[in-house]
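A quick aside before the break. I want you to see a complete sequence-to-structure record at least once, exactly as it would be stored in a machine-readable document. Don't worry about memorizing anything.
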Amino acid sequence: MKIDIIGDIHGCYDEFITLLKELGYEKQKNLYQHPEGRKLGFVGDLTDRGPASLKIVALVSKLVENDIAYYVPGNHCNKLYRFFLGNKVQHTHGLETTVTEYEALSKKEQENIKKTFISLYEKAPLYQVLDKGKLIIAHAGLKHEYIGQQSKKVQIFVLYGDITGEFHENGMPVRKDWAKDYNGDAWIVYGHTPVREVRIVNRTANIDTGAIFGGKLSALRYPEMLTVSVPSSMPFVKEKFRELWD
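That is the input. The structure line, written in tokens, reads:
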């Protein structure tokens, strides 16, 4: 299996298309395909904060439907899903930008994108187990002992990471560095916590390099374990990056 796993996009459509081209994907019939048959993987958080979240949803959905890509939901995906279901959710932490995009659409367009995203979300597994168990894609990561489990505890971990309930001065939640204690054989590729450079620890790779915060949009090429990144057009927000780990 050869797969290019892309970090948290957060509505950065232009960077996404640039990265696809950098990876060698070519546009064919409104889809992006690789001449060597490589596939794409997404760690979730396709939307919120960025300028074109719904364009990302539409394209990723087509890629998944056409068996070109694998997707797992992130915490922002979960919140948008609940919004589309009509649940009461706060329009904060970036959801407000996606809602503004949505409300600018016609009623027919709103129904189409809502149906598209709900289908994408409901068909997605909590985390992807690929290449005969050698590769796992999970939004915020996955402990070795959680592999194969679907409990509420595991759901919270996959969506939010190893949270403590406390917060840093910059408002980011305190998350334990689960990766430094990971001792499994499978590669865990994840995002969720922005870092300046792709962070590989043990057999884990954090590929969220903060595109929405002015960093980069990055992809990890598996099984080569090579990274490809493109610069972000967004303003740089240094305090949003996790520079040091506990």
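Two observations worth writing down. The chain has six helices and 14 strands. Residues 107-123 form the longest helix (17 residues). We'll return to this after the break.
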